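Pipeline run #58 for the internal structure catalog. This entry was flagged by the ingest filter as a single-chain record with no existing model, so it goes straight to prediction. Upstream metadata was stripped on purpose; only the residue string is passed forward. Reviewer on rotation: M.T. Logging verbosity set to normal.
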Amino acid sequence: MKANGKEVRSVEYDKERNVIRLIDQRALPEELKFFEVGDYKEACYAIKDMVVRGAPAIGVTAAFAMAQAHLQKKDLKEVAGALRATRPTAYDLNYAIDRMLESEDPLRAAMEYYDSILDKGKRIGDYGEALIRDGSTVMTHCNAGALATADYGTALAPIRRAKEKGKKIKVLVSETRPRLQGAKLTAWELSNEGIEYYIIADGASGYFMKKGMVDLIIVGADRIASNGDFANKIGTYEKSVLAKENGVPFYVAAPVSTFDFSIDTGSEIPIEERSEDEVLFISGKRIAPQNSRALNPAFDVTPCDYVTGFITEYGVFKPEEIKKIREKNHYAQGRVA
């Protein structure tokens, strides 16, 4: 991804120093700064406090943390337990940890996992780009770009690829309350890539769909059940319902590592509850009356009935074709057999 005219990546591993280097996403868009992780406890903090976020990026960070702990002679089962407890909804976290535990060489496995995430993002971009016509307006929610992976992205990958192919496109970016990942992070990425975009309030999504100003919606996912129900940032479910009501195609972009074939439906996906302060405060300033309380689920679950298709590194699949995705994911298939 580009930032200040240079290529940067959200997650990198310095093998010589045995340090994980993360873009500190809490500081964006005001400042591009980096956070160095020296051990698994710092990795747990970085994931839980959202220094790094986005299911694939969390998975990559966990993989590097396991490799780092291996070199530091730590108990990998203890490390794995601590990492799993940081963000319960994102399935890539568990997928990556299991890969590391099953490997005889965690460092090599972590690097291979990292490379695979980069490759998957580019392939998702290639398949998804075909869905975007020249002149299209695409709506997104939260951030599923290079910041949320290791580079290139999932939901933003088709948009990037369309731009690279010379298509003129516009992006409507939901602000994504309460942490504003759309307004802060997706907008920052699109700005750096020179892609035309407009930030909209979350509640304005239906307005633009009803006016015929949205050609398709592409979102990411943190966990996808066997039947196609999926968890994504809070507010995704509402967009899917509005999209179906207004005849707007609704796509989910995610690598097969996001599919959790050990669960049947979205009702089994654990939903992370975050601090009410994220709702009651913005940038440290209280916006609600004193003594107000808040509820703050970080994700919601969208039923597969609202999904037009899943954009994966193996192609675009309809919800009824998920069996084909499972066949592609030999690792997951073996684990639950």
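catalog note: Residues 331-337 have pLDDT under 50 and may be disordered.
catalog note: The first helix runs from residue 40 to 48.
status: ready for reviewer M.T.
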